[in-house]
C-alpha cells in the first residue's frame, strides 16, 4: 500500500484470499439486466457499501486481494488471529507485502466477515476481511474512507467506468462486447489483480490493474530498461515523499515514453518507482478512456477511447497537500524547501487563484501547486488564525 501526498498512489496490499463457495439457489430470480449500483465519482473511485444497516465509504481497489476495513471500525467485528484463519490462508498471510516492502502483524489484522451489500446485492460468504489504519489514505484522497473493496468482492460484479459522465456502475449481467469500441482479454488468478500488457517495440511488460492507485508504478529494473531505450523523459527522477502500510517512504517518479497498449500509443506515462518487482497501471491509465469496463466472467476489458496518448506537464515544484479532516493543508514537506514559496507546513489552503476548492478536489489543488508557471499562482492560506496572500 503506497501513497504519495503530492501525487497520491494507493497500491493496497498484495494479500491472499479467496471467497467461500456457495450452492446455487434454484429458486433464485433472473439476473437483473441493469446496474445494481451507479455512483458519481470525482477522482478516487469511492463506493457506498452497507454493513449491518449502516452505510460506509469504500475505495474500489482491484489492487487489493481481499476487502479491508479501517481499524477504527474493527471493534464492531470479531477479531481473528493468524492461527484462526482457514488453513488455506495461514501461510499466505504470515508474510504480507506492500509495494515498498513487508507489512508487520501490528499493521495488519483480520476480522470475521459479516454480510456486506453493494447496491441491491448482498455478499455473505467471504472467508475473511483485513483491518488497517486508513488515516493516511483519507488524508490523501480528500475524504474519510472506511475501507477498500478488494478483488474478492470486485470479481462478483461487472464494472464500467464512464469517465465522461464521471460515473461508476456495477452490474451482475455482463455488458455486451458489441456495445464497446474494443475488447481484449486479461490474465487473472488467485491472489492476483487483472493483468494486461504494455509494449515497447518488440518487448512487452505485464502490468496489473490497480484502481486503488491514482498513478502507475514499476520496478527500478524497468526504469533502467527504458533509459537504455532512450524512452525516459528528462534527466532524472522527481523526488516524492510517500507513505504505505509500512510508514512514510521516499519515492521517485519518472515519465516513460514510447509505450503502447493494444497497439495504441500512450504518449507519456508518469510512474512511481519501487524496488520490489511491483508493476501496475493506476487510475491515470483508466482515466484515458471514455469508458472502461472490467468483465470478470469473461476475463475481458472493454473500452471506448479516442486517443490514449498524453503529453504530461512537468512538475516545477514538489508541494505536498493533505486533507486534515476539514480542510486542505500544506503538509509533509521539508520546511527549508517551502521557505522560497512563503509557505509553511500546517498552512490551511483557503483559495488557489481565487477558487475555494473542496477537499475532494485535492488532486486539482496538487496539480495547480506543482505545475503552474512561476508568477501565475496566487494562494490565500490561513496560518495561526490569520489570512495570508501568497504569490508563487
TrEMBL record:
Signal peptide (residue range): 1-20
UniProt KW keywords: Hydrolase, Protease, Signal
Alphabetized GO MF terms: aspartic-type endopeptidase activity
Pfam families tied to this protein: Asp_protease_2
PROSITE patterns: ASP_PROT_RETROV, ASP_PROTEASE
GO biological process terms on file: proteolysis
Domain Peptidase A2: 56-71
Designated name of the protein: Aspartyl protease family protein
Species whose genome carries this gene: bacterium 19CA06SA08-2
Species lineage: Bacteria
Amino acid at each position: 500500500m503506497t501513497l504519495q501526498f503530492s501525487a497520491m498512489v494507493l497500491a493496497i496490499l498484495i494479500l491472499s484470499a479467496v471467497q467461500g463457495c456457495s450452492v446455487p439457489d434454484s429458486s433464485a430470480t433472473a439476473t437483473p439486466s441493469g446496474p445494481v449500483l451507479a455512483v458519481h465519482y470525482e477522482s478516487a473511485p469511492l463506493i457506498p457499501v452497507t454493513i449491518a444497516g449502516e452505510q460506509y465509504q469504500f475505495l474500489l481497489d482491484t489492487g487489493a486481494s481481499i476487502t479491508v476495513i479501517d481499524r477504527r471500525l474493527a471493534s464492531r467485528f470479531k477479531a481473528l488471529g493468524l492461527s484462526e484463519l482457514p488453513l488455506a490462508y495461514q501461510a499466505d498471510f504470515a508474510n504480507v507485502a506492500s509495494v515498498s516492502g513487508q507489512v508487520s502483524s501490528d499493521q495488519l489484522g483480520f476480522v470475521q466477515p459479516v454480510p456486506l451489500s453493494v447496491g441491491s446485492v448482498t455478499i455473505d460468504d467471504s472467508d475473511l476481511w483485513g483491518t488497517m489504519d486508513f488515516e493516511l489514505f483519507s488524508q490523501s484522497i480528500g475524504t474519510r474512507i472506511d475501507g477498500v473493496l478488494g478483488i474478492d468482492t470486485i470479481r462478483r460484479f461487472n464494472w464500467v467506468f464512464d469517465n465522461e459522465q464521471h460515473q461508476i456502475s456495477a452490474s451482475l449481467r455482463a455488458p455486451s462486447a458489441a456495445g464497446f469500441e474494443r475488447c481484449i482479454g486479461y490474465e487473472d488468478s488467485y491472489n492476483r489483480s487483472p493483468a494486461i500488457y504494455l509494449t515497447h517495440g518488440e518487448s512487452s511488460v505485464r502490468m496489473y490493474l490497480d484502481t486503488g492507485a491514482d498513478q502507475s508504478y514499476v520496478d527500478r529494473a524497468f526504469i533502467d530498461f527504458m533509459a537504455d531505450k532512450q524512452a525516459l523523459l528528462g534527466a532524472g527522477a522527481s523526488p516524492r515523499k510517500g507513505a504505505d502500510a509500512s510508514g512514510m517512504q521516499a519515492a521517485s517518479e519518472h515519465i516513460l515514453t514510447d509505450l503502447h497498449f493494444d497497439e495504441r500509443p500512450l504518449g507519456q506515462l508518469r510512474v512511481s518507482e519501487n524496488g520490489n518487482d511491483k508493476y501496475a497501471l493506476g487510475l491515470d491509465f483508466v482515466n484515458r478512456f471514455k469508458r472502461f469496463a472490467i468483465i470478470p466472467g469473461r476475463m475481458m476489458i472493454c473500452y471506448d477511447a479516442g486517443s490514449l496518448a498524453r503529453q504530461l506537464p512537468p512538475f516545477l515544484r514538489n508541494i505536498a497537500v493533505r486533507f486534515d479532516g476539514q480542510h486542505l493543508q500544506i503538509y509533509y514537506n521539508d520546511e527549508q524547501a517551502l521557505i522560497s514559496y512563503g509557505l509553511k507546513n500546517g498552512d490551511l489552503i483557503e483559495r488557489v487563484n481565487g477558487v475555494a476548492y473542496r477537499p475532494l478536489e485535492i488532486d486539482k489543488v496538487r496539480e495547480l501547486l506543482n505545475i503552474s508557471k512561476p508568477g501565475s499562482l496566487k494562494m490565500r492560506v490561513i496560518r495561526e488564525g490569520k489570512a495570508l496572500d501568497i504569490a508563487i
